[in-house]
Amino acid sequence: MKFALLGHPVSHSLSPVIHHAAYRELGLSHEYGLIDAPDEAAVDRALAALKRGELAGLNVTIPWKRRAFALATRRSPLAQRLQVANVLAPVDGELVAHNTDALALEAEFGRLVSVPRALVIGSGGAAPAVVAACVAAGIGEVYVTARRFTSEIPRPDWPGASELSRLGARLLSWPDSTPAARAELDALSEGTGLFVQCTSAGMQGADPGEAVAAMVRWSLTPPDALAYDLIYAPLRTPFLREAEAAGRRTAHGLHMLVGQAALAMEIWLGVRPKREPLLEAALAALATRGQA
Asked: What's the pTM value of the predicted model, to 2 decimals?
């Protein structure tokens, strides 16, 4: 059977390493590849191949999670609630959308923090899963800010505003947009225990991460605050380095990547692999690339 990751860019991805490690552990000879889709036409071709049976399943990453959800013919309850999908499975001629990101993140936040408030940075395809995971982990206040949350755009038209609000998030203007927005975020930071960076800024092959890294004034945050970056290549992003320099706790997205991959394999194959061999394989690959 053949599986793949669909997104753009994808050359940095550790998903093939993780999935092949799982296949070895399970005694399977499946294949897992990368499909770089720079435009909607490329996405549509990949989904057509999935419908034809040339692929047995797709993971979906930046920037196509919303399109994957929209093009699916059936959706799991969680994917329906989030309106984004990171897993597609062909079932009886239909494409079924799932979201394993939120479940993996809920487990991550549950083991790492017990806090009353979180701030999510970014409003892209990963943001709904992050918000839902925060809520499911018992975090009572979840705020979201993003670079396009500015006064030049009416608040109802902010990207993802309606779906993020529906999931329980409170939206904030980007702190660099006005002095009032800066002051609001600084005041909130004093009682915020979790900061989640879910943009592509700082990822290998994407935008530099320094601008996003500088938007949190870590000196104002609680001493035990956690900076969590969904990026895993490299493991130490500018966002995490800024937090670390201020003495705050940090965590990268590799555990989440492994967790969502194991859940995806359970959907496709009916069996969930052990996570430890998958994590070890991913860390070894990063070390080989000089990104550990």
From this structure: 0.92
